[in-house]
Amino acid sequence: MADLTKEQVSQELEKIRPQLNKWREDYYTKDAPAVEDNVYDKLYNRLLELEQMYPELVTPDSPSQQVGDVTLPDFNKVTHDIPMLSMGDVFSEAELAEFNDRIEKNVGHEVDYNVELKIDGLSLSLIYENGILVQGSTRGNGTIGENVTENVKTIADVPQKLSRPLSFEVRGECFMSKKEFLRLNQAREKDGHQVFANPRNAAAGSLRQLDPKITASRKLATFMYTIVTFDDLNVPTQHDALETLKELGFNVNPTAKVTTGLKGVKDYIEHFGELRDSLDYGIDGVVLKVNDLGLQRDLGNTVKVPRWEIAYKFPPEQAQSKVLDITWTI
Ligand code: NMN
């Protein structure tokens, strides 16, 4: 591995890039993944490994430089003034410890993390003006998203009017419960329609509908977790942001907790790894966020991901892994 020449790496990258970009299109644009996430993740991490060996081989069309994918042409577009980024991920405790070491080295001391579940849905942005919901949009490529305002208005747990006349943007995850996913797929099968591969794709396919009545007929839900612009809110930490979102009437996942350093993170991961199947929504991991928003700002972002958060991804669920065709081996 360490002995690969630049030419060999370049050749491998030329095979990996189009394959990943094809899978990204299936997943993000068509809402129909061709492979399981762990297959995608494995190849994506190989790409990162190769690009780290020869950074001069990174191309603008590399998946490492892109968030999401192209938006569907039928939708009106919105511009995200503050880009909606992706999230870095790790797959082992050792990698988690590396992340923590990096943070502590940067900051100079141990930090508090807000630990949250990684909900398997799609990112959603909501904009309020004077307390009224005026825009809902998808992440799209991070800068340009799809305007799905009318569809978002059909989601029961999204407040259309807040108790305070705030003007701000909040972000979170739109998802479909496992129960609703089963109901929808059974109905689709009965009607001879293609079934959705998993609740994540069912949620994405249901939110990205031109007819809001179709979205309304599929019971989507949200967990909101980020306040992007603060207006006159006094919110010093991620934990406070979740509390504020709750007070304002947003649906907030109840499991988040604050822990110092990696102490407690392992327990949280183990606990929810075991509970995973019994939850009525899909989770594919756990997210650690530096709790102090000032530190988050200091740490900043790379072109694709924030430096102050990381997702620890659970191993793939056995039951699902035969649903999709696994065609790539390296
Ligand atoms: O930030 P990116 O690299 O776009 O990925 C975000 C998440 O989406 C990851 O969890 C990844 O596993 C998933 N994903 C899956 C596929 C797939 O084909 N199954 C494609 C693109 C992204």
> What portion of residues belong to β-strands?
15-25%
Are any ligands bound, and if so which? beta-nicotinamide ribose monophosphate
Biggest sheet descriptor: 5 strands, mixed
Order of helices and strands: HHEEHEEEEHEHHHEHEHEHE
Rg = 20 Å
Structural class: alpha+beta
- What do the pLDDT scores average to? 93
Number of helices: 10
Output the strand order for the largest sheet: 2-11-10-3-9
Shape: globular
Terminal residue distance = 13 Å
Q: How many E strands?
A: 11
> Which blocks of ≥5 consecutive residues have pLDDT under 50?
319-330
Helix content: 25-40%
Characterization of this structure:
The protein is α+β, with helices and mostly antiparallel strands. Helix content is 35%, strand content 20%. It contains 10 helices and 11 strands. The strands form 3 sheets. Strands 2-11-10-3-9 form a 5-stranded mixed β-sheet. A hairpin with a 2-residue loop joins strand 4 (122-129) and strand 5 (132-138). Residues 319-330 have low confidence and may be disordered.
Descriptive labels:
binds beta-nicotinamide ribose monophosphate, alpha+beta, five-stranded mixed β-sheet, four-stranded antiparallel β-sheet, globular, 330 residues, 35% helix
Secondary structure elements and pairings:
Layout (H helix, E strand, L loop, with lengths): L5 H24 L7 H17 L23 E3 L9 E2 L2 H15 L4 E8 L2 E8 L2 E7 L5 E3 L2 H4 L15 E9 L1 H13 L8 H9 L4 H6 L2 E8 L10 H10 L9 E4 L4 H11 L7 E8 L2 H7 L9 E5 L17
Parallel strand pairs: 2-11
Antiparallel strand pairs: 1-6, 3-9, 3-10, 4-5, 4-7, 7-8, 10-11
This protein binds beta-nicotinamide ribose monophosphate.
